[in-house]
Amino acid sequence: MRVFCYQMKVMKKLLLKNGTVVSSKGKLKADVLVEGGKIVKVSAKISDKDAKIIDCKGKFIIPGVIDAHVHLREPGATHKEDFETGSSAALKGGVTTVLDMPNNNPSIDTAERLAAKYKLAKGRMKCGHKFFIAATGDNLVELKKAKDACGVKLFMSKSTGGLVVGDDADLEKIFAFAKGLPLVVHAEDEARIEQRKKEFEGDLSPSVHSLIRDDETVYIAIKKALHLAKKHGTKLHIAHVSTKKEMEALKKFKDKNITAEVATHHLFLNKDAYASHGKRSDSVTYYDCNFVKINPPIRSEEDRLAMWSALKSGLIDIVVTDHAPHTLDEKKKPYLEAPSGVPGLETLLPLMLDAVNHGELSLERMVEAMCEKPAEIFGLVGKGFVKAGYDADLVVVDMSKEGVVGSDGYATKCGWSPYDGWKLVGWPEKVVCGGKVV
Ligand code: DOR
Ligand code: ZN
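That is the input. Now the predicted structure with DOR docked in place:
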């Protein structure tokens, strides 16, 4: 029995040899030894005859990517995604930890529902995960009880699921409450959206979405959120910023308690996608569907470029997917009925590596924005770094590998991607999650 245990232990050792380890501080040629789900040693020329060797010559080793904003749709919408398919999509894309949003059915707005969601995920999530709890305006007691939430999600406007806090007095209470736990805010102003819907009534072209939920819509909401955060000392995290105007507000207010994320679609798509994306792919027909209908919407090229410079400068802290799968049939419905959101877990890392190859940002900053900073903001102990003592969540990256998005199908249940057919250079080659090659 003892020998068996010993052998089991030995089998679990992994040695990543001859690679280059990346952190925000730089690149280091080093071997990485993994045992029992942890990184046990990072140094030059490690040898261990009991370890399974992975040769990483010519490759980079980065920490497993942390996606701090996903919608895996359980409970309530498992025809779009479920814990198995969502976490498989994550791992396929080099994402080893996901933070999942509470706009489920029912909404995750009590400690009991949060506990039930963790229970539902047990043994089914293949990657690291934590869940948010939703603020509703009258559930402060529940927020207080929800000790294992990674943060509180606040929708200032309606999106998928219908959660919204529109009342100023309720907002004030929530911002005053959320001191320690990150308060993640979907900042779009509901009143302006309602007013603009009336102004554009009758226009059913998908691109009207960017006009209705315009840059003023997010500007009004972000200013309100930033003022409240300053007033109450809230740990505020602004979800999916998308416009140049928001950057002006963020610049004024940014401090250590205020952070922001950008979603991949606001880095890689602009308003032209409403028209052009129908023609991108031979494998899937996207014509006449609202498949790039997203909240907040895709923006102008100027806005898209502003996202890149804010990401480079650190004004935007992290990159997320806002992975929000809907079936193609749902997305093919007419404008008013089509739901908002696009999948993104499988394409996050390849898109960003391709951008690194094009000189958009450094690999070091990418690792900071997709591994180190999300771990820091959301207090994910043991995640985000390739260091001894940390969890063995690692991605071996081949910067010269060429690939086409969707050419080997999709792991996400919704089975499509807005980037289908895109040729990208730089792909994850091996993904290690919790010490296991997946
Ligand atoms: O486009 C979006 N889709 N924005 C959100 O805020 C929610 C998400 C979803 O859950 O579908
Ligand atoms: Zn979202």
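The chain has one domain: 64-384.
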